[in-house]
Write a structure and sequence with these properties.
The protein has 297 residues and is mainly beta. The chain has a single domain, classed as Lipovitellin-phosvitin complex, beta-sheet shell regions, CATH 2.30.230. The protein is built from 4 helices and 14 strands. Strands 2, 3, 4, 5, 6, 7, 9, 10, 11, 12, 13 and 14 form a 12-stranded antiparallel β-sheet that branches. Strands 1-8 form a two-stranded antiparallel sheet. The chain is globular and about 60 Å long. It starts with 11 loop residues before the first helix and ends with a helix. InterPro entries: DUF6263.
Amino acid sequence: MSAFVVCLVVPGLGRLWAADQSEKPSSSQPGRYRLRYSLQPGEELRWRVVHRASVRTVVTQTEQTAETVTQSVKTWKVLSRRPDGTVTFQLQVDDVDMTHRIGGRPEVRYSTREKQDPPLGFEDVAKTVGKPLARITLDSRGHVLEREQLEPDAFQTHGYLTVPFPEEPVAIGESWTFPDEIMVPLRNGTVKKVKVQQKFTLVSVKNDVATIEVKTQVLTPIDDPEVEVQLVQRLSEGTIKFDVTAGHILSQEIEVDRQVVGFQGPASSFHYRTRFTEDFLVDKVADRQKSADQLGR
């Protein structure tokens, strides 16, 4: 996916600008909403992310299950802003709590908040948590203009970094799409390119919160279970809530439940279920300003 997770709250005049431009219907086009991101230098925003995934495979009458639960806190530090609203921010993951279970084996758990050596397979997570992972340049419509990966083996979170908004204001019930391409490696060493698009629909705007439905649509015809079994793990379907006054995503809820038959012979099956949630926690800059205002009274 090319688009993914979120950003900000802006104090003072910046917040007023975002509100005037975003949360109210466009004065020139009544009933339509101009959706934009609005970040300010110095802002530091965090989200609590929970990702649950389970896989059940059956091959030649042998069944295997794997379950993973990952909880993390993701932080965006806004570094700079241009006059046109384009910003550069730094992404990092502050802490991770992971559990993994395969079949009847004992559960393996690792938390970066505890002083312990990471179990086998969790080493990369331990090395990158708390460090800047990427430096990203984003325009006000949510399009990623540049991404500099600072940690090649960085822990990867799921979900959408941003929702790419259209140029024109959007009416309730209206949809827009964002093209993408998924590279699927095959057992014979080749790679199949699969064209998809992310479809976004503005469902409602209530109390300055826009509810947006998202769904991945596969455009390339797929008739090979080997391709499909990998593709289902890259699909998304769910709801995103966007604070049109503050100019950032408030929450995400993505869920997929798909089954593929015949990926390794006619009797084989693959059942993939995943649920991803993300909830906005706090803007540290705004929180500090609020405390200062209270002390000054």
